[in-house]
From TrEMBL:
InterPro entries: Acyl-CoA_Oxase/DH_mid-dom, Acyl-CoA_Oxase/DH_mid-dom_sf, AcylCo_DH-like_C, AcylCo_DH/oxidase_C, AcylCoA_DH/ox_N, AcylCoA_DH/ox_N_sf, AcylCoA_DH/oxidase_NM_dom_sf, Mycobact_Acyl-CoA_DH
Ranges of residues in domain Acyl-CoA dehydrogenase/oxidase C-terminal: 235-389
Domain of life: Bacteria
Protein name as catalogued: Acyl-CoA dehydrogenase
Alphabetized UniProt keyword annotations: FAD, Flavoprotein, Oxidoreductase
Originating species: Cupriavidus oxalaticus
Length: 400
C-alpha cells in the first residue's frame, strides 16, 4: 500500500467519523473507555450497528466470513483515526476482537454461520468468563466445572466468574471450565459458549468506589452450554484460551495508544493552565511519557508484524514480541495517572462535575491503578516473559 493510498484511506475514515459521530451520537465522544464503560450502553450498541452499516466492523476478518480482509496497515489506520476522532469505547470489542477471530480460527462451520453474523452486524454482544475469585492472575487455577449431560450431550456449568466486564449488557459469554475431574493447571479444560439469558445464570454487579458497576460476578448453577457450542475439543480449552489472548494483543492496541495520547495531551494542557509546567520535573515526566508512547507504538507494530507472520505460518500462539506489551503499557499508564494527580495538585481531591477535563483525569488516574492487576498482574506478566519469552526455568507452582 503506497503512502498516497494510506493517506486517502486515513482521510476516508476521518471523514466518516466526522459525519457520523455527530447529532445523536455526539455525546459519545471520548466516552465508554476503561473506567467509563457504563456510559450510554444502549446508544453505544446503536453506534456498533452504525459502524457495521458503514462497513467498519470485521475489518481484518476474511471476506469468506463476512469481513473486509483489510491488510494490517489499513486496520491500524482505522483504529488510530477512530480514537483520534474521539470514538467511544466499543461495546462489540469482546465479540469482534476476541471471540470472533477465535471462532474463525477454531470454530466449526456451523458455529461460524450461527455466531459470526451477529457480532459483525453489531446486534449480538459478548463478555469473557475467565477470571474467578481464586483464578484471576493465574488462569490455570480455574475451578468452574462443566459436566456432560449424558442424555443430550450438552454441558452443565457450575461455578463463579468475576470481574466480568459488561456481563449485564451482553447476550453471550465464553467460559473456561474444568471438564476432567481431578485435573490440575492447564490440563482438563473446556472452552464453552453460553447464552446468558437462561436459567442457572445470575449476574451480580460489583459496585466500585467511583459509583460505577461495569464489572460483575457471574454465578453458574447448572447453566447449559449446547454440545454444538464447545469451541475446540474437551480438554483443549487452554490452547483455545491462550489463542484468544493472542488476538487480544491485536490491532486495537493502536487505538488504545491513541486514547493514551489524548490523555497525555489533557495532562499537558492542565499543566500549562495551572502553571505546573514551569516545574522542570513535571516537564521531564511529560516528556518521558511522550517518549514512552513512541516506544509503545514501535513495539506494537513489531508485535503485529510478528503476529501476521505467525498467521501465515499457521500459528496462533502469542509471539515473543507480544509478551512484553501488557506489562509495558499498564505500568506506563499507571505512571501517567499519578502524573495527572500531581499536575492537578490539591484539586485532584476535589470533585467538580462541571470541570470535564479534571473529571476525566481523576477517572483515568483512579482506574489506571487497576491496570497492573487485571488481565494478569505484573508478577504474572514477568513470569510469562521469563518462562515463555526467555526460556528460563519455570517457577515452582503448587497444585490446586
Amino acid at each position: 500500500m503506497s503512502a498516497h493510498e494510506e493517506q486517502a484511506f486515513r482521510a476516508e475514515v476521518a471523514q466518516w467519523m466526522a459525519a457520523n459521530l455527530a447529532g445523536g451520537f455526539a455525546c459519545l465522544k471520548h466516552r465508554g473507555g476503561p473506567g467509563d464503560e457504563e456510559a450510554f450502553p444502549e446508544l453505544r450498541k446503536a453506534w456498533e450497528r452504525r459502524l457495521a452499516e458503514g462497513g467498519w466492523t470485521g475489518l481484518g476478518w476474511p471476506r469468506a466470513h463476512g469481513g473486509r480482509g483489510l491488510p494490517v496497515m489499513q486496520q491500524v489506520i482505522f483504529h488510530e483515526e477512530y480514537a483520534r476522532a474521539g470514538g467511544p469505547g466499543r461495546m462489540g470489542h469482546i465479540g469482534e476482537g476476541l471471540i470472533g477471530p477465535t471462532l474463525i480460527a477454531f470454530g466449526t462451520e456451523d458455529q461460524k454461520a450461527r455466531l459470526l453474523p451477529g457480532i459483525r452486524n453489531g446486534t449480538t454482544f459478548w463478555c469473557q468468563g475467565y477470571s474467578e475469585p481464586g483464578a484471576g492472575s493465574d488462569l490455570a487455577n480455574v475451578r468452574t466445572r462443566a459436566v456432560r449431560d449424558a442424555a443430550s450431550g450438552d454441558w452443565l456449568v457450575s461455578g463463579q466468574k468475576v470481574w466480568t466486564s459488561l456481563a449485564h449488557d451482553s447476550d453471550w459469554i465464553f467460559v473456561l471450565a474444568r471438564c476432567a475431574p481431578g485435573s490440575h493447571g492447564s490440563k482438563g479444560l473446556v472452552f464453552l459458549m453460553l447464552p446468558l439469558d437462561q436459567p442457572g445464570i445470575e449476574i451480580r454487579p460489583i459496585r466500585q468506589m467511583g459509583g460505577g458497576a461495569e464489572f460483575n460476578e457471574v454465578f453458574f448453577d447448572g447453566a447449559r452450554a449446547a454440545a454444538a457450542d464447545v469451541l475446540g475439543e474437551p480438554g483443549d480449552g487452554w490452547r483455545i484460551a491462550m489463542a484468544l489472548l493472542g488476538f487480544e494483543r491485536g490491532i486495537s492496541t493502536l487505538g488504545q495508544q491513541m486514547q493514551f495520547t489524548h490523555e497525555l495531551e489533557w495532562v499537558a494542557q492542565a499543566a500549562r493552565d495551572n502553571g505546573s509546567s514551569r516545574d522542570a520535573l513535571v516537564r521531564q515526566r511529560i516528556a518521558r511519557a511522550w517518549a514512552g508512547l513512541r516506544v509503545m507504538r514501535a513495539n506494537a507494530l513489531r508485535m503485529l508484524a510478528g503476529a501476521a507472520q505467525a498467521g501465515q505460518d499457521g500459528g496462533t500462539a502469542l509471539q515473543r514480541e507480544a509478551l512484553i506489551y501488557k506489562y509495558y503499557w499498564s505500568n506506563w499508564h499507571r505512571d501517567l495517572g499519578q502524573l495527572a494527580l500531581d499536575v492537578l495538585g490539591p484539586l485532584a481531591n476535589v470533585l467538580d462535575h462541571g470541570d470535564t477535563r479534571r473529571t476525566r483525569l481523576q477517572q483515568m488516574a483512579l482506574f489506571s491503578r487497576a491496570d497492573t492487576i487485571y488481565a494478569g498482574t505484573n508478577e504474572i506478566q514477568l513470569n510469562i516473559i521469563a518462562e515463555r519469552g526467555l526460556g528460563m526455568p519455570r517457577e515452582a507452582r503448587g497444585q490446586s
